[in-house]
Amino acid sequence: MFFDHLVLGATDGHAEFLNGGDIIATLVVFLVLLFLLKKFAWGPLMGIMQQREDLIASEIETAENSRQESAKLLEEQRSLLKEARVQAQEIVENAKKQGEVSRQDIITTARAESVRMKESAVQEIANEKDKAMAAVREEVVALSLLAASKVLNKEISEEDNRQLINETIAKAGEVQ
């Protein structure tokens, strides 16, 4: 009824005077409406807004943490990659050094083998020369004996002939 009077009173034509009761009633209705809005609309709305704000802040913090973790992992990966490059360079350098050492060992071994083979060849040549000289001496002794026996037309003992030929050969060797 009170509300009817407010509504009807405004349409009665008494609008030129402000009614104090109408103002108070309007104010009370406004305050009740404001209280109800605050309790049932504004409070839950602000709670939802606060939850949303907290959720967004949490997601921003999570994203920042993820970014920092990613940056940290990236730096670790770069560090590991740099370390791997250094290790690879060390391996290459060691391989080069080892290759140079192996090359020097092979060259030294080859030179030593060459010297050994040369000395062996020189020794073999000397042995063959001595054998050839001995064979030539024997042949010379035999031919000398034959020539001497024909010249003298007599036979000398083989022992005397050998001694004579050896002396002749020795004297011929001293002349050379």
Q: What fraction of residues sit in β-strands? A: under 5%
Amount of helix: over 70%
Question: Rough shape?
Answer: rod-shaped
What number of domains? Answer: 1
Family: Belongs to the ATPase B chain family.
GO molecular function: proton-transporting ATP synthase activity, rotational mechanism; proton-transporting ATPase activity, rotational mechanism
Main location: membrane
Keywords: ATP synthesis, Cell membrane, CF(0), Coiled coil, Hydrogen ion transport, Ion transport, Membrane, Transmembrane, Transmembrane helix, Transport
Describe the structure.
The protein is mainly α. The protein has one domain (2-175). 91% of the residues lie in helices and 0% in strands. It has helices at residues 2-11, 20-152, 158-175. Helix 2 crosses helix 3. The longest helix is centred in the middle third of the chain and has 133 residues, at 20-152. The N and C termini lie far apart (166 Å). The model has no long low-confidence stretch (mean pLDDT 83). One of its GO terms (cellular component) is proton-transporting ATP synthase complex. It holds the Pfam family ATP-synt_B. Residues 63-138 form a coiled coil. It comes from Planococcus koreensis.
State the gist of this model.
With 176 residues, the protein is mainly α. It has helices at 2-11, 20-152, 158-175. The chain has three helices and no strands.
